């Protein structure tokens, strides 16, 4: 609910309050048992032997999840300054946490004419997607793993009946600091923005001494990004068309505390130490491949044909090639203990240029209704790069895909 502007002395206030109640229900079924076996080399006679047997049992689960949010925002105009203050409170029925997230932004119209504006902000954001953990807890308990010695004897059995300490978790959050400069430069608008985001209490999976796997708030990450955006202030007319273009360049540097990636809820913990950049570290400490792409360049063009109610948009994207810490299949032997460790080395992958195109026709149907037909093709030229993190499996960026959307706006 948005209130009308309220004058208090020299300031004007625009209040917004809101609430959200969400109920989610999910059903999952594994109709049949599934088994798998792992063999090792070698036993006393030099033969491979069964080292582990995995049994994934049939089952079904029907789960529900509720969350509630409330928020308040006040946009304050005072002379050449604009302040936005707010607070959001979230409660989720899974972790049973109440999380308070403050928000603040200040903007200064330096010369009072909108040509130069300086902006700064400090905000906190809490994660709000926990249903996957609740579902995963149920599904992961439908399995058993038996470990064998070379003679066929059972060394130990894991049944995963009590896998997670989820009820004791804190909600993951990110603290964000932002400073920016907005400038009108003749026919162009320019924005230069720096953002620092520190994320804490990320959820990772850790194997404890009892052999079971638990969720823990051990995940941490830090991201610094610098973005420059330049856009035409007014469209350029060419014949019966109106044309607009914008350019964006960003640099990002991210450090994570875990190789598991975001959440890691469906991955086994990486326990075995490895040798990387001259020292032995836990595999979880390897750099996260999925955020290791520092430079991104974006060019967008939009051509409008008003008489035909047609808009043609093109997006040109250049991503610098990142690097992956990958097993070199060579071993390092500790001179003191004689223990062998897998050697991981950084491998660079290629830069990628993609083109996305979108054609949208939106004719007026009634005085307040517009129909639309939109055809979109992503990665028009079907270019991709390999970013596999191991030689056991192949991973590549998405190829070409298309969609057709038909709708009504009223």
Word description of this protein:
This protein has 410 residues and is mostly beta strands. The protein has one helix at 131-140; strands at 6-8, 11-30, 34-41, 48-56, 59-78, 81-92, 97-109, 116-126, 143-148, 154-158, 173-185, 188-207, 213-232, 236-238, 241-256, 273-276, 279-282, 295-305, 310-319, 323-333, 340-348, 352-361, 364-366, 369-378, 401-409. The protein has a 17-stranded antiparallel beta sheet that branches. It is built from one helix and 25 strands. The two termini are 20 Å apart.
**Unreliable spans:** 261-267
Number of strands: 25
SS-derived structural category: mainly beta
**What is the gyration radius calculated from CA atoms?**
27 Å
The profile of the biggest β sheet is:
17 strands, antiparallel
- The portion of residues forming beta strands comes to over 45%
The average pLDDT value, as a whole number, equals: 87
**Shape, principal axes of CA atoms:** globular
Number of helical regions: 1
Amino-to-carboxy terminus distance? 20 Å
Helix share of residues?
A: under 10%
The helix-strand sequence is EEEEEEEEHEEEEEEEEEEEEEEEEE
Write the layout of secondary structure elements.
Blueprint: E1 6-8, E2 11-30, E3 34-41, E4 48-56, E5 59-78, E6 81-92, E7 97-109, E8 116-126, H1 131-140, E9 143-148, E10 154-158, E11 173-185, E12 188-207, E13 213-232, E14 236-238, E15 241-256, E16 273-276, E17 279-282, E18 295-305, E19 310-319, E20 323-333, E21 340-348, E22 352-361, E23 364-366, E24 369-378, E25 401-409
Parallel strand pairs: 16-21
Antiparallel strand pairs: 1-2, 2-5, 3-4, 4-9, 5-6, 6-7, 7-8, 8-11, 9-10, 11-12, 12-13, 13-15, 14-15, 15-18, 16-17, 18-19, 19-22, 20-21, 22-24, 23-24, 24-25
């Amino acid at each position: 609910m948005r209130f009308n502007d309220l004058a208090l002395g020299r300031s004007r206030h625009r209040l917004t309050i809101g609430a959200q109640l969400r109920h989610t229900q999910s059903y999952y079924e594994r109709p049949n048992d599934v088994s798998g076996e792992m063999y090792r080399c070698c036993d006393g006679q030099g033969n491979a032997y069964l080292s582990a047997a995995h049994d994934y049992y049939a089952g079904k689960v029907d789960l529900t999840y509720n969350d509630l949010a409330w928020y308040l925002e006040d946009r304050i105009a005072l002379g050449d300054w604009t302040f936005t203050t707010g607070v959001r409170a979230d409660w989720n029925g899974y972790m049973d946490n109440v999380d308070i997230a403050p928000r603040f932004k200040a903007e200064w119209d330096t010369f009072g004419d909108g040509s130069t504006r300086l902006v700064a902000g400090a905000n906190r954001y809490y994660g709000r997607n926990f249903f996957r953990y609740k579902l995963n807890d149920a599904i992961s308990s439908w399995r058993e793993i038996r470990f064998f010695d070379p003679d066929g004897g059972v060394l130990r059995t894991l049944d995963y009946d009590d896998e997670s300490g989820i009820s004791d978790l804190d909600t993951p959050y990110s603290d964000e600091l932002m400073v920016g400069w907005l400038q009108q430069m003749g026919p162009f608008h320019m924005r230069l923005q720096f953002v620092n985001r520190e994320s804490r209490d990320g959820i990772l999976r850790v194997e404890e001494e009892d052999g079971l796997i638990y969720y823990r708030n051990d995940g941490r990450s830090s991201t610094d990004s610098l973005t420059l955006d330049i856009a035409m202030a007014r469209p350029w007319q060419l014949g019966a068309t109106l044309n607009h273009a914008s350019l964006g360049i960003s640099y990002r540097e991210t450090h994570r505390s875990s190789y598991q990636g975001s959440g890691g809820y469906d991955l086994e913990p990486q326990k075995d130490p490895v040798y990387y950049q001259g020292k032995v570290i836990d595999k979880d400490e390897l750099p996260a491949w999925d955020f290791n792409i520092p430079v991104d360049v974006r060019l967008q063009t939009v051509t409008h044909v008003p008489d035909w109610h047609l808009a043609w948009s093109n997006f040109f994207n250049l991503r610098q090639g990142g690097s992956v810490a990958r097993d070199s299949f060579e071993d390092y032997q500790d001179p003191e203990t004689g223990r062998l460790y897998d050697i991981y080395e950084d491998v660079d992958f290629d830069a990628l240029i993609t083109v996305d195109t979108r054609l949208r026709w939106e004719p007026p149907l009634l005085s307040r209704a517009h129909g639309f037909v939109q055809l979109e093709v992503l990665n028009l030229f079907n270019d991709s790069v390999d970013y596999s993190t191991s030689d056991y499996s192949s991973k590549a960026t998405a190829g070409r895909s298309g969609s057709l959307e038909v709708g009504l706006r009223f």
